[in-house]
Each structure stands twice: as C-alpha cells, then as structure tokens.
Amino acid sequence: MRTAPAPTRRADRDAPVRSSRVESGRLARARARQRRRRAAAAFVLLGAALLVGIDLLRGGTHETVPTSHTASAPSVAESAEPSAEPSPSAAPSPSPSPEPVYQVAGDIPASGPGTWTYATGKGDVLGTAGTTKRFRVAAEKNIADEELDVFTEMIEQTLGDPRSWIAGRQYRLQRVPNGSSYNFTVYLATGETTRRMCATGGMDTRMDGVSYTSCRLPGRVVINLNRWRLSVPDYVNGKIDLTTYRTYVINHEVGHELGRNHEACPGKGKPAPVMQQQTYGLKGCKANPWPYVDGKRYTGPPVA
C-alpha cells in the first residue's frame, strides 16, 4: 500500500518568514524611539536657545535660585534699592534757635506830636466769663505802622493768655477800633509824650532827667517807647528776653486799669508779683510777667 508522503507542515514553512518580520518590526520600533528621543532633545535645545536669546535681547540677567531656604544678607552687588526715607546720618541738622532779644537796636525818637494812629479791626473776645471791657490800641504818629502792628499783636496775645487777667473770670477783654464804644485805650508813646501824659495825673516818669517808666491814668494805659524798646537793667543783665518784659509791662499797667495796686517782692528767689514795680528792679525776686501762676492768683505784700 502506497503510503502518501507526509504533508509539509505550514507552521514549518512560515516560521522563518514570521521570525524575519518580527525582527524587522522591532528594528523599526527601535529606530522610531531613537528618532523621537533625538527630536525631543533637539526641541529642548531649541527652547533653551530661544530663552537665552530673549534674555540677551532684554539685556537682563537671571536671578540666582537659592540652594537653601536660609536667608542671608545681600552682598554689596545685590543690595536692595535705597529707602525713600533718608538715613539719620543724611537727615539735615535742625536749624539753630534764634538768639534771644534783650533790646531793640536803633534810634528811638525822644518825643512826638502827641497824636495817634489807631489799630484797625476788632479782636476776639478774650476770656470766658465776667464783665466785658473793650479797649483801643494806638501808637504815636511818628512811630512806624509796623511797630503798631507788633504792639497790637503783643497786647492781644498777652491779655488772651490763660495766665493773664482773664484767668480770674472777672473780666473778658476785647479790642475794638477807634470810633467804637470802649472802656480804655492802650498807648505806645515816646518818652516825652509819656512824661507829659502821666504828669497830668501827678506822676513823674523821669529817671536821671529822661522819661523812664510807663503809667496808667483813668481810661489810659501809657507804655513808654523807651522801655518797650530797651527793657530794664535787671532783665537785660539777667538775660531775660525782651518779650517777657513787654508781657510784664502790659499786664502790670492793665492790672492798674482793672483796679490792682502795687505789691512787693515776697522773698528772695521767689517769683516777682506782676504788680511789683519790676521796672525799678526785681529786689531779689525772679522775673515773672503773669498775674496767675500754676492756675492761682499770685500776689505779694501790698505796698502802702
């Protein structure tokens, strides 16, 4: 019996072909992966090159990324922007305080025409209680208007101060212009005019033949220009500024107009009462221009 030849197995015939195809597929995939890696690397390099180019165009530099979170003081090259506030060493030094004035330099007219320039306008009411007393302010006509302005301002500042006569709550005071109803007038007068005015009330203002002091007549407070400009020896030699003397003489003479009489120094080293005749000397007391000290009326022994 013929035996038919054994059939060739398909698997045997296809094996080499399939193996070849598998190897070819693997090779193709490997090559594709290589191409992708190269493309990715090229892309990264291209991106880096673009960033460097942009920075170069901007002219900037990259800030170094710190490798530690520990803060450190910046180097000189990396110091922060200067603060808008100047350092203490760069701050301007304060301007020196003005030198105190003890006397006003310049010629002082010895006499005048006896006629007056009056301050204009109306001042505020000074004080919170008591009878209102209205007053005018005037300077002799040969005294400059600028000095009248200073005189007027000084009177209002003095009488409106809480250490002045308004502290007693007996009086309120108000400056009024000429032509208004008033109770008294405060005059700034040359020495000779002061002498003549005060002599009508029986007072002699002279010392060594020169009109020296101020005075008060009913309804008239007369401030001697000589004292207004030159103060007095105890103040000048004691380095007590001219403003303090001017404050004193205003409060002293207005005090007379308000019914106050002279008082004496209560003891060496103590403040002088404002009604002490400080123009003739402090007599061991310390200069004091105010009738109220530490909120209380300050007085000395009455002078008979």
Automatic annotation (TrEMBL):
<protein>
    <recommendedName>
        <fullName>DUF3152 domain-containing protein</fullName>
    </recommendedName>
</protein>
<keyword id="KW-0812">Transmembrane</keyword>
<feature type="transmembrane region" description="Helical">
    <location>
        <begin position="39"/>
        <end position="57"/>
    </location>
</feature>
<keyword id="KW-0472">Membrane</keyword>
<feature type="compositionally biased region" description="Pro residues">
    <location>
        <begin position="89"/>
        <end position="99"/>
    </location>
</feature>
<feature type="compositionally biased region" description="Low complexity">
    <location>
        <begin position="71"/>
        <end position="88"/>
    </location>
</feature>
<keyword id="KW-1133">Transmembrane helix</keyword>
<feature type="region of interest" description="Disordered">
    <location>
        <begin position="1"/>
        <end position="30"/>
    </location>
</feature>
<dbReference type="InterPro" id="IPR022603">
    <property type="entry name" value="DUF3152"/>
</dbReference>
<dbReference type="Pfam" id="PF11350">
    <property type="entry name" value="DUF3152"/>
</dbReference>
<feature type="compositionally biased region" description="Basic and acidic residues">
    <location>
        <begin position="9"/>
        <end position="26"/>
    </location>
</feature>
<feature type="domain" description="DUF3152">
    <location>
        <begin position="106"/>
        <end position="283"/>
    </location>
</feature>
<feature type="region of interest" description="Disordered">
    <location>
        <begin position="64"/>
        <end position="108"/>
    </location>
</feature>
